[in-house]
# Entry
Amino acid sequence: MATVNFLYRSKLDSANLTARLLFRHEGKDYTFDALIRKKVTLEFWKKRNKKIRDVNFNNLQNEINNELSEVRTHVLKEFDSVFYSNQELLTSIINKQWLINVVSSYYSVGSNLNDKLVPNRVVDFFDYLRETRKDELAPRSLIKYTTYKKIVERFEIETDKIILLKDLGNNLKFELVDYMKKEKYSVSSIKSTIKYLRVIWGLANKLGIETNKLFDPLKMEKDPEFKIYLTLDDLAKIEQMGNTDLIDARDWLIISCYTGQRISDFMRFESSMIRVENDVKYIEFSQQKTSKKMTLPLHPKVIEILDRRKGEFPKKIPENRYNEEIKTICRIAGLEDLIMGKKFMPFGESQRRYEGEYPKWELVSSHIGRRSFATNFYGKIPTTYLIYATGHGTEAQFLNYIGKSNKDLAKELFNYFK
# Structure
């Protein structure tokens, strides 16, 4: 049958212990490891079985032995449950992830809000939120939760410790920021990660789970932001490409540049959303990110595409593929001018965005349509209307989005004095 041992496997002076599950099945030995919450010093671990006349040492010895005994009993109980009900599938069910989940479940606490168990480990809490709030969160928010979870998991591996809800606070914030800087994460990635951890910290407080009292917002200077957009001349070159194997992506790109919507919105456009009133064609939809109900008049360029397609929008394209295809389109269209921007490049087993001078086509992504619309029509369409179309909260946000500084505004004001 199975056994559970505990090991100190870190090179650090203090670390979380490792639970090791060992069992033999059909003549083959299996071993799986998972970190547990209990953290001890290397010095204590070497002396853990010795009889020492010290009250503090003996109290700690009893506390740790009790917890290890409870974890062992919990893991073996779960193992037996699988063994006696699914013996033929034993090795398909029991693996490293199974052990991690079982150890995490030992540390779960009851929620005051429902009967579900609320995990105390931060990476498990991300999964808890995804499950319990899946009907409330937008798809892109769910993707972000996965991204931030992976960052915390990498941080745990780097520091060789488990991050609990009670660890969320200023000390952890500074440690995580230092780690992310070392790993070449952008300032925006660092700030958004801390922001979401503060959201989790707040939710944990509401659930009555022990947390650190101090977790202040992160204040960091922003990375330089490059306002990449397609000019009207660029769009004319793209339109002149004629028929192409990438015609769906090309038409979506043009549509995005003349409607100013995010890909999560324009890629859902359908002919059934179009309404005609007094010979004007409008499209009506709800923005996925903000749930704001929109009614936009269709630009003649969009109507041209619809007329060519017998009133239908192009075929839907997954975002990753769309990003690659519009880069190809812009390269074929000759958008080779070197401009400053940030581009994803390999960093270890992952990727990071590196600042540099690149051909314009390499910096094109699905977001470029919204910024192109806002930039190209600024000064031609009243800003109030542009803000309505793009969905920005304030004029200040909109002007920052298109890169208009106070100096730019002063120059434009001067033109009215002539």
Notes: Residues 108-206 form one domain. Residues 55-85 form the longest helix (31 residues).
